[in-house]
Amino acid sequence: MKVKPAQSFLGCATLLMGVESICATALIIEIGIIAICSSAEPLRIIGFIVSPDLQVLAASWCFVGIPITVAGGVGVLHRIEQNVRLLFYYMAGTFFVGLAIPLSIFTSKSLCDIVVDPELQNQGTSFVCGFAETFVGAWTLMACLIHLYMVYIVWSAAEDISLVPNPELMRYEDALRGANLMPFEEQPKTLPPEQMAKAAFPMPQPVSYGTRPTSGAVGGPRQGGLAATPAFQPAPMPPAVGPCLSAGQ
Predict the structure, then answer these.
(1) What is the pTM of this model?
(2) What does the angle CA 36 – CA 37 – CA 39 come to, to the nearest 5 degrees?
(3) Which among 34, 54, 120, 239 is least surrounded, fewest beta carbons within 10 Å?
(4) What digits encode the pLDDT tens for the residues 20-48?
(5) Contacts by 65-69 with C-beta closer than 8 Å and gap 24+?
(6) Percentages (nearest 5) of helix, strand, coil residues in the chain
(7) Distance between CA atoms of 63 and 215, rounded to whole angstroms?
């Protein structure tokens, strides 16, 4: 059965936001592991003693993972499939590398001595050690499931990018598919370029100002001709009325 890629992160966010948050969390963890690494002194974490060689190995793995994580975050932002695939392979390898630590602890039969205080072991080794092993096993299983879900989200983002490299072009594809276009064989032949240019950009017609059709004018009638007259004709001036003209009247 083929695994289907996820469509969202935690059911409420996009794959982009999910991968970016995973990259940010991975960067914080990687930088923190490198910061506490020591090649000379063992590290004690809640009863667990980590040797210097194991610290250097973990820090080296995290150092390699920093550029891969950054490239994966940039790749999912700009939809570069190779970067996201590389991040997926690194996180899958990290899962198996990290799984070796709890498996070695469970198989060494020293988990009870590491977690439980010796005074509590005197009260009943079976009950106390059984409860401690169940508690540690439950949290280990929860951490493994969370890591597997992160790997699954990164893989889903890589699959989404491979299927749809340019999602912004999907709306144009949907518009073309929904358009009722005529088949190419039934389409009419196109006009020559000259006629298409004339139809698209018609030549403007000359416009003459101040002309009017007349049937006749001073100087003889014109059959169907145009008499050129100015566009604006001033009105005739009224007769001058002065004192001399009034006296003569």
Answers:
(1) 0.64
(2) 145
(3) 239
(4) 999 999 999 999 999 999 888 888 776 67
(5) 65/26, 65/30, 65/90, 65/94, 66/27, 66/30, 66/31, 69/23, 69/26, 69/27, 69/30
(6) 60, 5, 35
(7) 100
